[in-house]
Amino acid sequence: MAFLITGTAVLLVGFLLYAVLFTGRRGRNFPDGPPTLPIIGNLHQLPKQKIYFQFTEWAKQYGGMFSLKIGSGNAVVLTDRRIIKQLLEKRSAISSNRPVSMVAQQLITEGDHMLWMDNTPTWRTFRKLLHQDLTETLCNKEHVKLQQAEAVQLLHDMIDGADHWVDHLKRFSNSIIMSIVYGIRSPSIDAPHTRKLIEAAEIWARINEFGATPPVDIFPFLKWIPERFLGNWVTRAKEVHDALHDLYDGLLSSVIRRRQSIGSIDSVVDRVLDQQEKYGLTTHQVTLLAGVTIKGGSDTTASVLSSTIQALVTDPSVLKRAQAEMDSVVGEDRTPTWEDHERLPYICAMVKESHRWRPVAPLAVPHALSEDEIVDGKLLVKGTVVFVNVWGLHQDETKFANAHKFDPSHYMDHPLLAAEYANSADYEKRDHYGYGMGRRLCPGIHLADRNLFHAISKLVWAFNIEKGDDPQTGKPFTPDTSMETGYREGLTACPYEFPIKLTVRSQKRHDTIMKEYAAAQTEVFQKFDKSDFFK
Q1: Which positions does UniProt annotate for heme binding (predicted)?
Q2: What integer best gives the mean pLDDT of the chain?
Q3: Burial of 45 per CB tally in 10 Å (0-12, 13-18, 19+)
């Protein structure tokens, strides 16, 4: 018995000694990085908010690929275009998994959130089903009519209520993706599903921000500690779960009732339901596929547009140049359309610069390796988490002179659309990383690029956009453009709201907006008024 006790004690001491000496340390031939501590590695050095600023500083010191030890886990941070192309695109078959996320993937979405799924057959089915409705051809031939109409309503809404301009941007982006996915528009920001989605997106972003919950993915034993000692993280996650599922379940049920009443219409969910049995999808999977798509297509576009308007009011010369180009191509008797985009290179450059200057995802959703991989002679073992430091890439002064400044001239030599650069072999010509990379490239890239063009081009055509008055001082209010102090952040970055002043550029343009809005109501919007969701 004494021998057994002694042996057990020796094993325990040995285990603890091993943990202290080796857990948190870099393995042999792992990339360099900041110094580590036993057990926790670099965890103590990671800021709870806006971690990409620290990553950018470390990249200057340790290079375009440096490593972190997060407990016993391995991570690398990429701020190098060549390595991103090599690892995440050319080797996408082994670099398209996601790190474990107990909160986002297990507690909130029960394993069916497409963004957090591994590269599995189910995930590939999800991508396939989405892609069939979001191709470039469909965007150019079908979705463009909806985008044109929704952008006209955006102008109409801005005229009637400039004080609520952020809400109008949210409605615009939400209505397009809602119409395509469910066949249900968002006629106003006060539509039930629009308000619910905005509220759910806000709490989703807060709980998924780095440091918002205990690091249970790194130290699994934490899940056994009563949550009241750790900020009630499980309860908060379940609240997000309930909010999202309440909305998504209601929308799917509405589509099913409509199908039973009048049959199928032209929507993503209708086509998915038609193929549900073929692909063996559960109702929960259909619910999450659709719900995640509308969420992703709503908050990102609105955030990019908010940053664009912030840039325009702080540097009027950009708007002046954009309007000069616009006026040389489009008169006052119509608003710009997608057919004009090739003749509006500065406007198209504004779309790209909006992604670069204040990226909506400054730190891309991390990838994870499913196999060992050698990169530049360094061993990245299976399970290594790969962060892409989008902020650092977009602020690279060797690629973008005066990178801190919103300057569409950065892209006057990039005439192609984002999808073409994302799929190009020439990584040096990649315009920006706003849509992700490799097999995780945003499936809505064609739709999103066109959404931004329609909104930005029409706003430039219609309005003089200036600083609004500070409600406290009555003087023009200069918004804080700093990513450190002027932007709220969860999984996506968005500027804090600020007042603006909108003036329609002429009575003729005002009349054109009203005429096109009336046409949109009769020719486009009525197609989507077939749901009982609002009743």
Answers
A1: 442
A2: 91
A3: middle
